Amino acid sequence: MSSFKPYLQLTRPANLVTAITDILAGMAIAQFTFSDFSPALLVVSTLGLYGGGVVMNDVFDAKLDSIERPERPIPSGKVPLSSATTLGISLLFLGILAAAMFSFQSGMIAVVIALLTVLYNRFAKHHVFFGPLTMGMCRGGNLILGMSVLPESFQSWAWVAVFPIIYIAAITLISQDEVHGGKKTTLYIAAMFYAIVLLSQLKLANEHGNLLYTVPFVLLHAWFIFRPLWNAMQNPVGPLIGKAVKAGVISLIVMNASWCVAFGLWPVALAVLALLPLSMLLAKVFAVT
């Protein structure tokens, strides 16, 4: 098990749980009735795409991590670079294959997500604008992958993916200063992005007649993300920024639960929220960022 753990670390297990909730939220937005288990392939797909994406992140950052984060699996020598590369590529292919087995449309969406993850990790990551945008598009694509469970609904609601893009862009903005500390201005911009997402969820919930049920979920989400972000604003040092990033990532589960209840599927929302303790537990064992 000890030799397997570094490979598991590369996939960010706590984050993988959040990727599953993207799919469930996308299915809820598409008004899938959850009457059968056929979309399980989409869950397998997101595990492959997200897992492969974060592994390739460490592959491309191997040199930088040897200086800034030498404790990570690759620079510490626990996982050879060649093995990590093989793992990352294999997981991305698994993600594409599983989606294609569900439908051609889902397969094409998975291809786009895989390409975006490579684009982010190889070229866009350290760019102040394209980094947050590309990473956000990866997460937005994941929500769309869930919506592809019902193609007709997918065409009506794919635009909702703009909100995960805004949300992840906020997290990515914060994380750019995680190692060396950052600027308060960046954190205020991220807070504005967060607020846009939360208010938009309330607006959509109101339009669907589900505002009363959605408010508690949105308030819970706000408490999770704004508390550590406020602390980082007061003192923008690396450790506090890291906590704000971690909270933003784990709280994706609460955001996805909010989408489910906003679109009227409160039992699915509760099921998604039930995954939060699992993700938080995994976050104590494995790194989130």
TrEMBL record:
Pfam families attached to this UniProt entry? UbiA
User: What name has this protein been given in UniProt?
Assistant: UbiA-like protein EboC
Q: Does the keyword Cell membrane apply?
A: yes
User: According to Swiss-Prot or TrEMBL, what is its membrane topology?
Assistant: Multi-pass membrane protein
* PANTHER family hit by this protein: CHLOROPHYLL SYNTHASE, CHLOROPHYLL SYNTHASE, CHLOROPLASTIC
Query: Transmembrane residues, as ranges?
Result: 12-34, 40-60, 128-150, 156-174, 186-205, 211-230, 265-287
Sorted alphabetically, which CDD domains does this protein's record hold? PT_UbiA_1
* UniProt GO MF annotations: transferase activity, transferring alkyl or aryl (other than methyl) groups
Per UniProt, subcellular location reads as: Membrane
UniProt keywords (A-Z) are: Cell membrane, Membrane, Transmembrane, Transmembrane helix
Give an example GO cellular component term for this record: membrane
